[in-house]
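Run log, item B.
One chain of 210 residues. Sequence copied directly from the ordering sheet:
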Amino acid sequence: MRLFIKKILYYFLNTFENTEKVTLSGFSRGVKNVAFEGKNAVPDGCNFSGKIKIGYATTLGYRNLLGGTISIGKYCQLGADVALHATNHPISYMTTYINQNLFQGELKQLKQENKIIIGHDVWIGHGVIVVGNVTIGNGAIIAAGSVVTKDVAPYSIIAGVPAKEIRKRFSETIIQEIETMKWWDKSTQELEIIKPLFFKDFTNRHSIYE
């Protein structure tokens, strides 16, 4: 009976549940549609539909909405009110309407099915909307309120509606060094060894090892 109640909390109520892989707080829907890698946090008001994977230590924000086929890497942070829409209404048919009220919902099969792929160590600010077939590279920063409709290069800062690149975070050399290191795949012990690198300011530097 106790196990049954825990399952009800996990899938529906989510008042507060701290499992081996995810901490759920508040009320969220569709958690059963998500594969969590571990040490994830899901706050109140999130909604999940489709097939979703959330990488190790990635945390979500209040009222995140994730719909469709979505893969999010490790150590990412999503702000409040972020929406990831990997599906879209059909636009080249008679109507965009796919609700049950027309032909008993048969038109839903015409819905566009895309994929959203988000790399590792990505920061997505408050109120960002990502739509369609989009890949966001490792280390990217998406400014609050942006609408992303195209791929985002690794370690770039983008902003606006539609979102455009403002600048790269680091020099190409530093980007290559971080990509080669792949710190997000390292164990806790390995991260401790390279910990000093995380406290370096890379402004005006040409290498992480300077």
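Observations after the first pass:
- The longest strand covers residues 47-54.
- The mean pLDDT is 91.
Flagged for discussion on Thursday.
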